[in-house]
Amino acid sequence: MHCALYDADRCRSCQWLDRPYSQQLNQKQSELQQLLSAQAVSEWLPPVTSAQQGFRNKAKMVVSGSVERPLLGIVHRDGTPVDLCGCPLYPDSFAAVFAQLKPFIARAGLTPYNVARRRGELKFILLTESSRSGELMLRFVLRSKEKLAQLTNALPALQAQLPQLSVISANIQPVHMAILEGEEEIPLTENQALADQLNDVPLWIRPQSFFQTNPAVAASLYATARAWVSELGVKSMWDLFCGVGGFGLHCATPEMSLTGIEISAEAIACAKRSAEKMGLEKVSFAALDSTAFATGEGSTPDLVLVNPPRRGIGAALCEYLSRMAPPFILYSSCNAQTMATDIARLSEYTLVKVQLFDMFPHTAHGEVLTLLRHL
To answer: Is 251 annotated in the active site?
Structure first.
């Protein structure tokens, strides 16, 4: 993939862009094998590759410049803004949307937030595309509600220009820190859930719910989890840190009892909607802390699936899983280092399968799926 901004040293988000893709994969696989070198892995499966450009379904754009000439992108380490509207990681469809958003910002009078001066209103533009329909979710991250009426009044013209806008909201982030979004989300359209589908599973994305940014590789990840679980013949399963339910809903069958736990109420609302659409009657989802739920339960499922944030599942949950001793654990991670630490704590388990999914090409990051069996 060629990127003029990388060549000009204006953006280094793709740290490994100067390496051939095959070399990137080899290095990720080698580092993963080194991290798990203390474990006896029964089967190493080959890495799942990604498209090298146009694979992201989401753009997180810092808004800078002036209200008359806004820039959407990042702030360079020297403090100058960098426009990323032509970033090759985004699908081609995003370019036309960005082209309409810039004059819209001016018409709506949304002054870009100036970090140094602590002035202005519009901090970020967050754009997500449905891989199924091409419909869009657009979020304006504002410093306050001061310009909310102006934004609302200007929206009909933008919606006429971009009929693919299905979900629009404003997020209020008043803190002068590098925080992407605040707690308060204000809906600006009646619909607040972007419909998507990976494989044969309908999924919904709400403004504050997590969703994978590489849907093609995510579909492969979920399909692989389903295949691995189907070979085990399990009758009951927990899906901890379940997000919008992608893993659990792929693995569930009409006969299986599935409990999905996620701290985000927004994500749980999406997961419940998907389960209802699929007609799964023995599935339940709840907005709870995953560790608190697991350690407070008295029953033991056949399989526990965990897909934690980068910090991993931690010592407390590892200790409880070891004592609870479910026959199988399926661990998916976006941070191989914390995953390896957690697996080392699960000393009563052996690693059956390990597979790398290249969710984040041109970076050192990847998604890893592992299957553990109790000894």
So the answer is: no
